[in-house]
Amino acid sequence: MITIPAASVAMPRSNAKHDACQRCGSDHLESSESPARQRPVRASVGDGGRADFTIPLPCRSIAVCPRRARTALESMPHSRRASAIEDLQPVARDLFVSAMSRAANGVNVVCTDGLAGREGVTVSSACSVTAEPPSLLACIHHLSGAATAIEHNGVFCLNVLAVGQQRVSEAFAGRIVALPDRFAVARWRTLATGSPVLEDAVAAFDCRVDHMLTEGTHRIFIARVVAAWEGQGVPLVYSRRSYAGLDLEA
Ligand SMILES: Cc1cc2nc3c(=O)[nH]c(=O)nc-3n(C[C@H](O)[C@H](O)[C@H](O)COP(=O)(O)O)c2cc1C
């Protein structure tokens, strides 16, 4: 007979995918191939009564338990580490999306114009690559009209949005219904490539596409900056599915 403090006993749950790992305590997901493992236990509880419980066992796969994976990898000879690392499985999509939503990102509108037409899309997955040569990248879903147009036009402008331009962001994210022309929500001009440059942007980077990679659902455009413009204003930030501004005075 063993006595188990109530807090350490896992009652059977309907969603067996979320058992905490006994070894690291994390509430990470069991993989779909490996149903949650439980050990049945008969134990005394409280005032001397007895009850049947189940105790979750450690994750069976190093691919499922990050802390166990690290321990296993650390104790492994170098010769075996490479194949063990290859066996590590991607994190569950929902966890990835939820965790990533906590990051703070600048909000941009990437626009293009040319033979394939004028298109634009709201993008937070964009950043500087290197100053020599001046280059940046933007990741755009392959089904977006802007991705196809940029691929054919070979040019785009990355417009960095300011606080107060949330409506521009929403328009180019396709979130304003019955908006026949996204470009109608703001005023535009051009720099070198003919791509639309947003008036009152915090900054604008006019680019020529150098490389295009495909990763999963997205196109990654790596581009050379051929003209840039510095504006005023506080950059618009997006985190936890909400807009915010930076307190640059602090
Ligand atoms: C703040 C914010 C950031 C976004 N970032 C990206 C991004 O980095 N890449 C992307 O493909 N879509 C991003 N989206 C979603 C696209 O803007 C949206 O799906 C867009 O409407 C797709 O283009 P389409 O309307 O031409 O199909 C973002 C949306 C918002 C509101």
Q: What is the class of the largest domain in the CATH system?
A: Mainly Beta
- Characterize the overall form: globular
Order of helices and strands: EEEHHHEEEEEHEHEEEEEE
CATH homologous superfamily placement of the largest domain:
Electron Transport, Fmn-binding Protein, Chain A
Mean pLDDT: 82
List the quaternary state of the chains: single chain
- What radius of gyration results from the CA coordinates? 26 Å
Question: Helical amount among residues, as a percent range?
Answer: 10-25%
State the helix count. Answer: 5
Task: Give the termini distance in whole angstroms.
Answer: 61 Å
List keywords for this structure.
7-stranded antiparallel β-sheet, single chain, alpha+beta, 5 helices, binds flavin mononucleotide, Pnp Oxidase, Chain A, disordered N terminus, 15 strands, 250 residues, 3-stranded mixed β-sheet, globular
